[in-house]
Amino acid sequence: MNIDVSATEQQNYQWKIQSEQINDMKKIIEIYPYAIETLGRALSVVRINAMFIPTSSAILIDPLQREFYSLPQNIIKFKLKKDFEHNDNEFVPEYTHQIFGRNKIIFGYKNLKINFYCLSSSFIFCFNVNYDEKINQEQNQELQTDDISQLLINWIPSSITTTSLDLFLSKIKYENEYLPFGKQLFNYKLKGEESSPYFIYCINQNYFNNSRFIEWFSGFETFVKFFINSESTINNKDFKMIIYLLYQQYQNNNKQICYTPIGFSTLHLYYAYPDKKRPRISQILILPPYQRKGHGRHLLTTIYNDLRKDSCVQDITAEDPSDKFIALRDLVSLELCHKYLPDLFSKESILKTNRLTK
Fold it and tell me: For the purposes of burial, counting CB atoms within 10 Å of the CB of 341, is it exposed (0-12), middle (13-18) or buried (19 or more)?
C-alpha cells in the first residue's frame, strides 16, 4: 500500500525514524480492511514524533499469521557437491532482493527451508523447498501465497536447474570429466595447504561463440544474484569482454585429478582516446567457502599482471566498487607498487617524503 503524502505535508515534515519502527513498518502488509486505519494511526504517531516514513509500500502482518512469513536470508542455504559430506560448509546468501523483491519477505509457509545443491564443476543446481505447513487459501482467500519455485526458475536458467534429486545425483558421475576453460596464467598454493594447488585461467573473446561455455558460465553467474548487489550478468553478444576464472585442483575419492571453479572476475574493455583501451572490472566473486583465504588477492594481482603486458591498456578501473573491493584493490596496488617501484619504499625516499610533508 503506497503512502500518499501531499506536497504540503512533504514540505512541512522532515521525517526521521528509529530502527525498530523501520523494521516494524517494513513487515506491514495490507491484508484486512482495517489496515488503512491502523497505518493511519501509525502515521499520526510518526508525525507527532517527527520521524521518517520510507516511501516504499508498507504491509501489516497479523500476529496469528506471523509464523507463515520468512526472511529469505534466514531460510536459504547453499552447498557445493565437493562439500556434500560436510555439514559445516553450508553458506547463506548476502542478497535476495533481486529474486524476492525489496520487501524480502516470503509468505505462506510455516518453518520454510530452501536448500540449493550445486555440482561444483558443472554448476548444475538442484533446489528443494521444505515446510511444515502451507497457509489455507480457501479459508484466507484474500491472501496470496508466494510461488517460490516460479520465482527461482525466473532467475536461474532452466537448463541447469532441477527439482528432481534423482536427476541431479545422476549427473554427479560426469563431474570428473570437467576440464577448465581458457588459457592458464598463474598457479599458487596457500600457506598451510599442501594438497590443493589453485589455477587462474583467462577467457578471451573467442569463447563467447562457444555455447557450451556460455551455458556453463550462466550457471556460475547464478551466484551473482545472491552475492553481488547488482543485476548484471554476462552478455554473450558482448565480445569486448574478458573473464578470469579461478580453479581449485583436487583429487577425488578415486585419486582422479579434478577441477572446481571457486571464483571469477569479468571485465569490459572500453575505448580510451586516442588509441588505447580501458578495462573495467564489472564483477569479482570468490565463493563463500573460499573467502578470506587470500584468493581474491591472487585473482586481482593476476588480472593486473596480465593486463599490464598490453601496451594498449591505459588504466584499469572498477564499476561501482564495494568497500570490500576497494580495500582489496588498495592492498594489491600497494603490493605491486612495492614490487615494481621499490625505490618508492626505500629509506631515502621515505626520509625525503617526511621532510617534504613537514
Answer: exposed
Give the dihedral sign, CA 161/166/167/168: positive
Q: Are residues 161 and 85 in the same domain?
A: yes
* Same domain, residue pair 71 and 57: no
The pLDDT tens digits for 329-354 are 999 999 999 898 888 878 777 777 67
Domain that holds residue 294: 179-320
> For residues 184 and 40, which has the higher predicted lDDT (pLDDT)?
184
Residue with C-alpha cell 511444515? 132
> Exactly one of 67, 90, 319, 335 is catalytic; which is it?
319
Mean pLDDT check: name the lowest of 52-66, 103-117, 210-224, 236-250: 52-66
Q: What is the pLDDT of residue 184?
A: 98
Do 189 and 298 sit in the same domain of this protein? yes
Q: Check whether residue 121 and residue 16 sit in a common domain.
A: no
Residue 168 scores a pLDDT above 70:
yes
Same domain, 185 and 310: yes
Of 22, 29, 161, 181, whose CA–CA distance to 108 is shortest? 29
- pLDDT for 172-229, tens place per residue? 888 888 999 999 999 999 987 676 899 999 999 889 889 899 989 989 999 998 999 8
Question: Does the active-site annotation cover 319?
Answer: yes
One domain for residues 73 and 155 = yes
Which residues is 261 bridged to in the sheet?
247
If one counts the domains in the chain, the total is: 3
Q: What is the pLDDT of residue 239?
A: 63
Domain membership flag for residue 344: no
